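This entry is passed on directly below:
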Amino acid sequence: MVMFNRRSITLLFSLVAMTSLEATSSLISPTVTSGVTRTFRQNQTLRSPEIGSSSSNSNSNSNNNSSINLHSNSFKSDEETPLSNSALGASRYSGGGGKRLYNTLRARGGDMNLGFFSAIANMDREKLVMAVALFATYFSVMGAKCALPSTFNLIMSAQSGLNFYGQEPQQLIAKVLVISTGAISLGKFLLGPVIDKYGGVFCLKVALSLLMGCLAMIASTSSFGVFAVSWIMVDFIFSSCWAACLNAIHQTYQEEEWASRIGLLAVAGRVGNALSFFAFASVLQIVQAQRQSSSIVAAATDGSWRVVFWVSSLLQLFPLFTFGIYQRIKDAKVVCSINNNNHQHAVGSKEEKIAAIPSQQRRTMKDSLKILGGEAKYLSFWMHLISRSCLMIVASFLLFVPSYMANAFGMSSSESARVGSLYALGSLLVVTFFAKPYSMMNVNKKIISTVVLLGSLLGCSLLHMAHIAGVYTISSLGATVSMFLWGVSFSIPFYIPPSMYALKRGGSESSATIADAFDFGGFMMLAWFNGFVAGRQQEVLMSWFAPFCALTIFSAVSLVTLIIATLTES
C-alpha cells in the first residue's frame, strides 16, 4: 500500500509549485521575448531625431486610418501597432510601466539576462493580466469539479446530513451524475453561439458568479433535492468555460500564441485538479482525525464534506478579481486611444460610427452557426469530433480514480484522492513542456507523437484489465505510476489538436461554437459512461472490468481518428 506522510506530501506540493512556475515561464515568455526585442528597437528609433522626423507623416496617416476601427487596434500589441500618438498613449496603460521597470533593472544590473522576469516586465499588461485571469479561471473551475469525487463516499454515508427521502444514496447519486453530464451536453449545444456573440470575457464573469452561488448552496443545504439541482447547474455552467476561454484567447492573442495559451489552460486545469485533491484530502483527513480524538465521533452527522464545497465556492473570487483588473486596463487603453484619435480624425458619418462599434457587438449567432455548418462538410471536422469525444471519457475517468484505487488496491480515502492528484500531475507535466513543440511539428512528427502517447494510454488500460481479470497482479505502487502515465498520455491529443482547429477555422465569429460542437458528442457519451460506472457495485473488483473495456475501445478509436484528422487537415 502506498503511504503518504507529511514529507511526501510536502515534496509533491513542491513539485506541483515548481512545475506551475515553469509552466508559466514556458507558456508566457517565448512569445514575449521577441516582442521585447521589437519594442526596445522601436523605442530606440523614437529617440533618434532623424528617423523620428522622417516618420511623422506616416504616423499621422496611420492615426487617421486606425481611428475607424477601434476594436481591432485595441487588441493589437504595441509591437504590432504603428507607433502613432494613440499607440504611445495606450502603451502607458498596457506595457509602458513594464518597459520602464525593465530599463531600470537593466541599468542597475548591467547586461545581465533577466530571462523570465524581463519578459513579464515588457509584456503588454492587457495580455499578461488576461493570461493570469485565464489560468485562475480554469484552475478554480477544475478545482471545484474535484469537490464531488473527493467527498463521494462521505456524501453517500448515513452521516452526511442530507435527506435522501428514504431512497438508496448510491442510486440517487448515479442519476444525478447522468443528468448533470447531460446538462453539460445541453450547455455545449446552446451556449457556443451565445459566447461568440457576447464575448468570452463577459461570459466567463457571468459563469464564475453563478458557479460560486451554486457551490455555496450545495455547502449549506440539507436537502438532497437542492444538492442535486445545484450540482446539475454547476455542470451546466461548467460547459461554457472551455469555449469561453478559447474565445477570449482569440480576442487577445495572435495565432502564434494560441498553442501556448491553450497549454496554459490545460496546465491550470490539471494544477487545479492536483492541488484540489491534495487540499481536500488533507482537510478531510484533519477533520476525521479530530472526530476520532473527540466526542464528535458520536455525532449524528458528519459535515466535513461541506467545508470542501465552501472552499470551492470562495475559490471563484480570484478569477473574478483578475477579470476586473483586466477590464479596467482594457477600458483605460481604449479611452486613451479614443482621446488621442479625436485630435486627428472625427468619426462623423453613420457608416463610420457603425464601423467603430466593436465587431463582438455586431455579429449574430446565425453567423456562428453558418460557419459551423460549412466546417461540417469536411472529414477533418468529424475526425476531430470523434477523437475528442472518445478522449473526453478517458480524461473524465479522473472522477472515478479515487473510488477505483480504494476498492481495487485497498487504499484509504485520502491516499486514493492523492493518487487522483498524481493523475492530474502527469497531464500537467506533458502539457507544460510539450504543448507548443507539438503544435509546431510537421505532419509526420505529429502522427508519431500521437501513436506514442495514445499507444501508452492503451497499454495502461490493458494492464488494469489484466489486473481486474486476475491475469496479472499490479502492486499499489505500480497502479499509482500507471495512473500518472495515464494522465501523461491523453493530454496533448485531447487539448491541442481540436482546440487549434476551432481557433483557426472558427475565428472570432465561431471558435466557441466549433469547440462546443466537438464537446457535445463527448459529453453525451460521458453521461452514459458516468451513470454506467456509478451504478455498478464498485466495491466488487470485477465490476471495473467492463468500464476498462470501454476505455480501451475509446482509446483505440481516438488513435485512429486523430491520425486521419491530422492527415486530412494538412
